[in-house]
Amino acid sequence: MSEVHVIGQILGASGFPESSLFCKWKVQMGSAWRVLQGDHEGQTQVDEPSDEPMANWCHPIDLHFATKGLQGWPKFHLQVWHQDVYGRNELYSYGFCHVPISPGLHEIDCVTWRPKGSLIEELKTQFIGGSAQLKNPDLVSSSAELYKLRTVSMGKVHLRLHVIVRNFDKYGVEF
Amino acid sequence: MNTKPTSFLVFVNGAIENAEVNDFDDLYLRFSYVIGKDWKICSGLEEGTTQIAHKSVQLGSKIVFNFPLEATFRATNPFGWPQLVISGYGLDAFGNDVVRGYGTTYIPISPGRHRIRIPLFVPRSSSRFQQFLAWFFGRRPEFVDPKVIAFNAGREMTRVQSHGYVQVVFNVVTKDLEELGYKIETKHSSQTSQQRSERNETTYVDNYHA
Predict the structure, then answer these.
(1) pLDDT > 70: what percent of chain B?
(2) N or C terminus: which one in chain A shows less Cβ crowding within 10 Å?
């Protein structure tokens, strides 16, 4: 059994229309993979930066996987949410990014998008808040079904991850 | 006869260099390491406090600490890699000791020299009125245990405001990680880890102007 460690932080996000953001994250992986140690999902703090446009979360990620194969390499599903002054939460965007395959330090910018509604729905989003949401959030990383969607670009989520691998060379995998 | 090692060592030294903040002129930091249960600190201070440092009269000056950090860790598992947790305090206008910010970062894993900018954040009061009371009485919201920011659980309840950064330099060396079968760098990397972390630090700074 080979092992992969992912150690790092979800640093923050930038490029969103409003500040006061938080992120819900989840790790998705294939059937050959198992999480041995670490939480596979979580939610960051809500940050409202006082002087810069970038929301800082510094949320620790420490995951230990065991695997029997390369297929289904883990990926992060991210949802960026906005909390307004009244404490209401609305979804801002979806994004996904694969855990990097090569061992070492990686600075990752995960781009995100949100589903675009009809004209009436967009006006509602503008004035009342609360955008359209996906019925099945796992759609974010499924290549077969995304053709049905119309989306609008949103900002980026910044991650800094270090990947450590173990026992892959016994199976002939070269990094 | 070579006996195979059962644990690896991570040796870290470096310094808390300076803090970049706009709202106040003086600061002192308390730092501590948060490690997993498979880890142990062999030598070095597990926690400490820096001096109380002030800005100089120059415009745009940073608060310089130049505070030494040295520690050696022994572990059997990379899970629970050490994190440096920093909490900053200072005096407010009424002379009360108030919390100025918390920050955390992982000790870098790749051997070499790394400079990391840790953002500082402070818990927000629940309402404007609470905020005024906190300012007036000098009892600002703070974490009961600063180490909570190094964990995943329970973070969703915290509402914070971030301002300022603390710059820390780390020099890292590992022993016996490769002997135990762990690969922490790819052999095809075209840059040294120091070049990459310095390039990455610039990229990180530029990202929030995008």
Answers:
(1) 88
(2) N
The CATH classification number of A2-168 equals 2.60.40.150
Would you place residue B1 in the very low, low, confident or very high pLDDT band (cuts 50, 70, 90)? low
Tell me the CA distances in angstroms from B152 to A25, A89, A100, B8, B123, one per residue in order.
11, 20, 21, 25, 17
Write down the pLDDT at residue B194: 46
Domain segments of chain A as ranges: 2-168
Whether the Cβ atoms of residue B111 and residue B171 lie closer than 8 Å to each other: no
ipTM for the complex? 0.89
Chain center to CA of B202:
18
Domains and CATH numbers, chain B: 8-205 (2.60.40.150)
Q: What is the pLDDT of residues A22-40, one digit of tens each?
A: 999 999 999 999 999 999 9
What are the residue ranges of helices labelled H in B140-192?
none
Which residues in chain A are closer than 8 Å to B23, comparing Cβ atoms? Answer: 50
Nearest to B93 by CA among B143, B55, B134: B134
